[in-house]
Amino acid sequence: MANSRNMGMPDQGFGYGPKPRAEVSRRMSKTTSTVSSRQQGADTPTFLEFFAGSGLVAEGLKGRFRSVWANDVCARKRGVYVANHGQDHFLLNSISDVRGGRLPKATLSWASFPCQDLSLAGVMDGIEAARSGLVWEWLRVMDEMPEKPPVLVAENVMGLVSAEGGAYYRALHEALRKRGYKAGAVVLNAVRWVPQSRPRVFVIAVKKDLDIKKFSDHGPNWMHPSPVVRAAVDLKDWIWWRMRMPGPRRKVLADIIEEDAPCDDTSVSARNMVLIAERHHKRLLQELANGFKVAPGYKRTRGGRQVLELRFDGVAGCLRTPEGGSSRQLLVLRKPDGKLATRLLTVRETARLMGAPGKYKIPGSYNDGYKAMGDAVAVPVARHLAAHLLLPIAEACGAFHA
User: Residue ranges of the alpha helices (H) in 132-233?
Assistant: First the structure.
């Protein structure tokens, strides 16, 4: 999922201005040339990543797919990406300036396109709007490639399949069909792997001539909630993708908390505690008698006043960025002395909630790190999808692109 990953121009707020088209062309040529000179393993399928953000998809696909080209418009997210995956294959520029004829061949093309116009927390302007509509730029780039990747993945929020009765998904599905693909959408919630509720839609498309019998079901399964089922009605070239279900999640929110992180001062904590909704305050008192450690919550407006709504299931709410239309998540914690205090999630905690490894580098300020993690795909979700569906499909295609 993306928020500000690739708007029409590079992110001005990150100090990166537009470059002349000649400079863009020069940099693209250099990037492609560098990629071509890298040592390529013929036994590993390659992928292109659009709206690459902070590199969590690349982290999840690592070992099964090899990135040969990545792109984003945000300079600060690029800083996170290259700190972990290198800079030789990364192009910092608007997708509008990317030309498909200059890209290396690849088995997979992945696009986590901007979600603001499809998010229930945002303005819901739709898939034709300026930000989420950049998915059409991705398809335009695919059209320009001499040889289209045989496998495509587009990722976004639930609004892609649920809004307007599924009309936004159906528009994307038909566009894929016209380009020679058959496709299906699945919903994977990161909560199956990490203590964060984060349902996301993954549209997986393959060339129409690929035999997908062993990868598909005859109807809905655990990855197809009712919005997907409704969006799929009467669609041609629809696939009910099948994939192994993950095992039970091993951790709860309390397991990933940095216990030595500083809390808000007493006055700020007190102001936050007063905002706790009445029914949530009653539940908090009950939990205090049962070894309570931490509860996450969001500040929301109810009945004309601000309240802090908590959850007590050991799971954090979905990480979001301000561009996605939501406030930051607040924690209510029980300190070692038994007193309650509040604070925001730390950057490392957000990384843990996204399943990033402990060694994952997150340079920059707190705001940079929070945005880099909150505007991404959870690593274990991408890893599971790659291991149990995308790689088997790539192997069935029989032609890895080096």
Answer: 135-144, 159-162, 167-178, 226-231
